[in-house]
Design brief:
The protein is mostly helical. The chain has a domain of 80 residues: Multidrug-efflux Transporter Regulator, Chain: A, Domain 2 (Orthogonal Bundle), CATH 1.10.1660.10. The protein has a three-stranded antiparallel beta sheet with strand order 1-3-2. Helix 3 packs across helix 4. It is globular, with a radius of gyration of 17 Å.
Length: 126
């Protein structure tokens, strides 16, 4: 699969995602109905906000459908299998004895994400 460099952003609008993935916005909206793993957030004005993880998933879906030749059902199954294989424990898991947790780093990351989201949501609609 071709590696695409994503801009260093937390959230993307549908037009940006369509350009990155290389499909029309209506295709992205259709894929949202077919793939339950895709759940973009919405602003108060109902604009979609895709997270970086959503964009990566969309790129994988495009690869499966367009390059690997999977059907929608086959791509769903493949995504579900790969999701099971890469399940990670939640960030709130209790650390093991002797394991060091960098709470400051976790809080800094959350703070940055909240600021970016606030900035996106506080922009006036055009």
């Amino acid at each position: 699969m071709e590696q695409i460099e994503l801009p260093n952003k937390l959230y993307f609008r549908i037009g940006e995602v369509a350009k990155i993935v290389g499909v029309k916005p209506y295709v992205l909206r259709y894929w949202e109905t077919e793939f339950p793993v895709l759940k973009p957030g919405k602003t108060p004005s109902r604009h979609r906000l895709y997270r970086r993880r959503d964009v990566e998933t969309l790129l994988e879906i495009k690869h499966l459908l367009y390059e690997e030749g999977f059907t929608i059902a086959g791509a769903k199954k493949k995504l579900k299998e790969s999701e099971k294989a890469t399940v990670t424990p939640p960030a709130t898991a209790v650390p093991q004895q002797g394991e060091k947790v960098e709470y400051r780093q976790v809080l800094q990351t959350v703070r940055e994400e909240l600021r970016a989201l606030h900035q996106l949501l506080s922009k006036k609609p055009r």
